[in-house]
Design goal:
The chain has 351 residues and is α+β, with helices and mostly antiparallel strands. It is built from ten helices and twelve strands. A hairpin with a 3-residue loop joins strand 2 and strand 3.
């Protein structure tokens, strides 16, 4: 098998994902929303969260572990807040709905917070943090990860997940500033993609239960991810898990289902989205100009020896999106073969 990735257009990828979900029984609107969000992940260079996840989602759907036509329900609601039940739907659909609700509320209240429970894996955090940008809003998204890969600091029992956060801030002449990070040194999706590609992972991402560095991603089940900043990353993972999980009545700690190993049990994944209307604080045009000034200050600041460029969060995402929009999305041969098998299983046209 060739090791050269195939470059596929965003439209061909979007169409394939849509066909796959339709074949699983999704209503057409839901299939298109989910496919668009997953394709955006691949366009943004977030390869561990785009079409790479499709076989896993389909397997969970066909195993009866996910609802193909969820009916979202508001559990609690006030003027600026809400808690919704995702009815065990695909996380992309749940959070698309929650984010739209948050933006609508923020237009009146200036800031809103919408939590969700009984959801599923929703792809990369930045997808939802960036949605409010189009309405001159700042987006903040946090989720409980869909499998535990992190013990409490100093422990060995994996009670925490990567519990990511994303914050998106609009700018004027530059790309938006987009922080999208796990509370672990690396997201587990990067470990999975490395394993599929036959690559090793850097020292410092994982250790085994004896504290020895683990660099073979196929042995990931023998160890755990390391938190960013040692105990500080553990603290963030804990607090984010409480806010996105416990507060919402969603799974956290020992209740988290490993969706990598279990395709049938309901995961009850929790998330929340905050939408902050810039107009509640200042004129959006002025704010964007001020963020451009921040860009300039950061980019032009003195560099350490050997450093070619100072980058801002979101700069690489914008560059990769531009490149992939023009030349296509690279799909590794191993993933392409997996997607071909999926097409055969579902009885649909392959990529």
């Amino acid at each position: 098998m060739s090791s050269t990735p195939s470059n596929l257009s965003a439209e061909s990828l979007r169409s394939f994902i849509t066909r796959s979900f339709l074949a699983c029984g999704f209503p057409e609107h839901n299939a298109r929303v989910a496919a668009d969000l997953m394709t955006q992940a691949d366009l943004n260079g977030q390869d561990g969260h785009g079409v790479f996840r499709l076989p896993q989602y389909v397997n969970r759907i066909l195993s009866g572990g996910m609802n193909v036509d969820p009916k979202f329900k508001v559990i609690e609601e006030r003027t600026a807040t809400a808690l919704i039940d995702g009815d065990n739907g695909l996380g992309h659909l749940v959070m698309h709905h929650a984010t739209q609700m948050a933006m609508n509320k923020a237009e009146t209240t200036g800031i809103s917070w919408v939590g969700a429970r009984h959801s599923n894996h929703a792809g990369p955090a930045s997808l939802y943090a960036m949605m409010p940008l189009k309405k001159d809003m700042i987006g903040i998204y946090v989720a409980v990860g869909s499998a535990n890969h992190l013990p409490p600091w100093g422990g060995t029992e994996m009670l925490l997940s990567t519990n990511p956060i994303a914050i998106a801030v609009p700018s004027g002449q530059n790309p938006p500033i987009v922080l999208d990070m796990a509370t672990t040194v690396a997201a587990y999706g990067k470990v999975k993609t490395a394993a599929q590609r036959g690559e090793t992972i850097p020292e410092g991402w994982m250790i085994d239960k004896q504290g020895t560095p683990l660099t073979d991603p196929t042995r990931a089940s023998e160890g755990f991810l390391l938190p960013i900043g040692g105990p500080k990353g553990y603290g963030l993972a804990l607090i984010f898990g409480i806010l996105a999980g416990t507060l919402n009545g969603a799974a956290f700690g020992q209740d988290v289902i490993d969706f990598n190993a279990d395709s049938k049990t309901t995961t009850n994944t929790g998330h929340f989205i905050i939408a902050l209307d810039i107009k509640a604080f200042t004129d959006p045009s002025k704010f964007r100009a001020d963020i451009d000034r921040v860009w300039g200050e950061m980019k032009s600041s003195p560099k350490l020896p050997g450093v070619d460029e100072i980058r801002l969060p979101g700069e690489r995402l914008a560059r990769i999106k531009g490149e992939r929009s023009a030349s296509g999305i690279p799909v590794a041969p191993a993933l392409k073969a997996q997607l071909d098998k999926l097409a055969e299983r579902l009885g649909i046209a392959p990529l």
